[in-house]
């Protein structure tokens, strides 16, 4: 009942593990210029000065001890680290869904700026930022009501998605199964040498599986899974994959009022 093969999961795990490693900044060797960059980027992402305990604040304190040192990381890595810390502070790691039908010009600019910073190049067509700009042109004065940190996290997550796609290792977390999530957790753990942190691909995958395990399968959920798998594969999902299994469970639940869940069949 697997949606993706083992090689795909392994590639995704290794790619995300590298992202996690890159976003770790060695404060024991950070210099003043790098600390200023972190403070600037995290300030922009939060919309206010990073508080004590933030990465930027700790970096400034550490850099004061060795201002001419260097952690040896590039500007894009510093930007990603600042964005990740800002979103953790402001939104607890939950970006939520942005309603692009109501996105305004200011929000679209923020998304473009943050995603550009995270990627290190202009977000391509199909990215969250590019789509937001297109939608905002229709209603420039609208607003999703999202705060700067939520926009920053959404941009960061989409940037990670784009990088994964460019490396051929994108996983669709909507349709990932419990066995796949366990395999991803195992592979990423091996690569990192420790448990994947919140926000990692493995942690996000497990969160999706855990959330899905709590709810009975409905026809709406089954239809969404089929739509996602169809998009990813370019054809209807094969028998035995998560979408057809979900459809079968949804049909049974509709017939007898049952509360069958994907976890009941190991997914």
From TrEMBL:
Bias (Basic and acidic residues) occurs at 252-267
Domain of life assignment: Eukaryota
- For bias type Low complexity, the affected ranges are 1-14, 200-214
Please give the residue ranges the record annotates as the region Disordered: 1-22, 41-68, 118-146, 186-214, 226-267
Name the UniProt record assigns to this protein: SMP domain-containing protein
Q: What is the lineage of its organism?
A: Eukaryota, Fungi, Dikarya, Basidiomycota, Agaricomycotina
């Amino acid at each position: 009942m697997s949606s993706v093969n083992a090689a795909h999961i392994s590639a995704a795990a290794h790619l995300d593990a590298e992202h996690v490693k890159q976003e770790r900044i060695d404060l024991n060797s950070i210099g003043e210029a790098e600390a200023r960059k972190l403070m600037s980027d995290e300030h922009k992402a939060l919309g206010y000065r990073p508080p004590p305990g933030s990465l930027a604040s700790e970096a400034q304190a550490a850099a004061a001890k060795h201002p001419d040192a260097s952690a040896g990381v590039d500007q894009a890595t510093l930007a990603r680290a600042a964005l990740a810390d800002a979103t953790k502070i402001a939104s607890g790691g939950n970006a939520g869904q942005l309603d692009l039908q109501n996105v305004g010009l200011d929000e679209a600019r923020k998304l473009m700026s943050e995603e550009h910073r995270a990627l290190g190049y202009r977000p391509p067509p199909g990215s969250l930022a590019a789509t937001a700009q297109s939608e905002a042109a229709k209603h420039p004065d609208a607003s999703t009501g999202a705060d700067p940190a939520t926009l920053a996290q959404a941009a960061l997550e989409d940037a990670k998605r784009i990088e994964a796609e460019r490396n051929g290792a994108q996983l669709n977390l909507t349709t990932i199964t419990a066995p796949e999530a366990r395999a991803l957790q195992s592979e990423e753990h091996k690569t990192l040498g420790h448990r994947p942190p919140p926000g990692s691909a493995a942690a996000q995958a497990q969160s999706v599986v855990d959330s899905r395990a709590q709810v009975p399968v409905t026809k709406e959920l089954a239809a969404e899974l089929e739509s996602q798998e169809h998009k990813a594969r370019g054809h209807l999902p094969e028998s035995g994959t998560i979408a057809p299994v979900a459809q079968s469970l949804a049909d049974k639940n509709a017939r007898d009022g049952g509360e069958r869940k994907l976890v009941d069949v190991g997914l």
